[in-house]
Each structure stands twice: as structure tokens, then as C-alpha cells.
Design a protein that fits this description.
193 residues, alpha+beta, three-stranded antiparallel beta sheet, 16% strand
């Protein structure tokens, strides 16, 4: 239904306008310019629209305030994107915290069986003494070398779990040639195959 609103008071056209808006209007009519970067506006159907607005006095040629000007921009989509981004950041922070905790616990828990493997290999080597064959010596050497590499990898996992606590200026420089050599050594058997 069309209704003629010319000459009618704003509050008669919108009788359910909240008191907060009436107060904003009165402040602007007294000369203030008010603005809001983010303001939720609930529609009649219950949906919420986010607005960015500015309300300023409108002056007649004599300089007196004759009304107010209201500028609005609907920012609902931007607000929803910001909220989704914030939620994803919180999920990522929680996920990183869980990953750090897992890496810390895993690196700690893997040390005990690794020590057992190294100790058993050294014990076996000591039990065999000088009677050890070259083949057995090579196998024991592989076990001890593998255990040492595993210990180094576990240490790396532990360091990774604490990397968030280190400020960037405290991070050590890395020799990439050494890293490549370690990777080749770790993958030696696969490379040979």
C-alpha cells in the first residue's frame, strides 16, 4: 500500500523507531556529526543488516540547522567475511596449539623406545666382543646410525613444537647445504633402491 509521506514527521512514518535513534537525531539537530563504522540494524523480519553510517546537520542558507542528512552503506557482506575470517583464525590457532602439543608429547614419548634400541644394540655389541663378524658389525652400525638419525629427527620435532615461542630475530641461520646432505643421508636406502 502506497502512503504519502511528504510533510509527515519521520517518527509518524516509522513509529517503531528505537529511542537510541531518536537520541542520535536530537544530538545531530543540536549540531553534532555522528558516525558509526559498524552498526547492526534488525529488520522487521528479524534479519540483521550491518550498516556504516554518518549523520550530520543540514543547514539552511541562514546557517541555522534545518534538518539532518543521513548517509549509510550496507556492510553486511564485509562483516560476515570478517567474522568468518576471525573464526578461521581462531580455528587455526587452536589447531596449531594442538599440533604443537602433539609434537611435544610425541617427541618426548619416542625418546624411551629409541634409547632402548640403542642400548640393546650397544649391549649386543659388547656381548659379542671381538668375535663379531663384519656382517653383524655392519647391521649393528646401521641400527646405531639409524637410532642417532631418529634421535635427531625427534629433536627436530621438539624444536618445531616450540617454534611459536621464538621471536624471528632469535631464529638461527640455516646452512642449506647441510640440510640437503642430511636429507640425502636420511633417504639413502630409498635412493639406492
Amino acid at each position: 500500500e502506497e502512503v504519502d509521506i511528504i510533510g509527515r514527521c519521520h517518527y509518524d512514518v516509522f513509529p517503531d523507531i528505537p529511542q537510541r535513534w531518536k537520541e542520535i537525531h536530537q544530538r545531530v539537530l543540536r549540531g553534532e556529526t555522528l558516525r558509526m563504522k559498524e552498526d547492526p540494524f534488525t529488520r522487521e523480519d528479524g534479519s540483521v543488516v550491518w550498516l556504516q553510517w554518518e549523520c550530520q546537520p543540514w543547514r539552511v542558507s541562514s546557517g541555522q540547522i534545518g534538518g539532518l542528512l543521513f548517509f549509510t552503506q550496507v556492510i553486511t557482506e564485509r562483516k560476515l567475511l570478517e567474522e568468518r575470517l576471525l573464526q578461521q583464525q581462531e580455528e587455526l590457532t587452536r589447531s596449531n596449539r594442538d599440533l604443537e602439543q602433539f609434537a611435544y608429547v610425541a617427541s618426548h614419548d619416542l625418546q624411551a623406545p629409541l634409547r632402548s634400541v640403542s642400548s640393546c644394540a650397544q649391549l649386543l655389541s659388547g656381548m659379542l666382543g671381538d668375535d663379531i663378524s663384519p656382517e653383524v658389525q655392519e647391521v649393528l652400525s646401521h641400527i646405531l646410525t639409524g637410532a642417532e638419525r631418529m634421535r635427531s629427527m625427534i629433536g627436530g620435532i621438539f624444536e618445531l613444537s616450540t617454534v611459536e615461542t621464538v621471536t624471528p630475530d632469535k631464529l638461527p641461520l640455516v646452512d642449506l647445504e647441510e640440510v640437503v646432505e642430511e636429507a640425502i643421508l636420511a633417504l639413502r636406502l630409498t635412493i639406492e633402491e
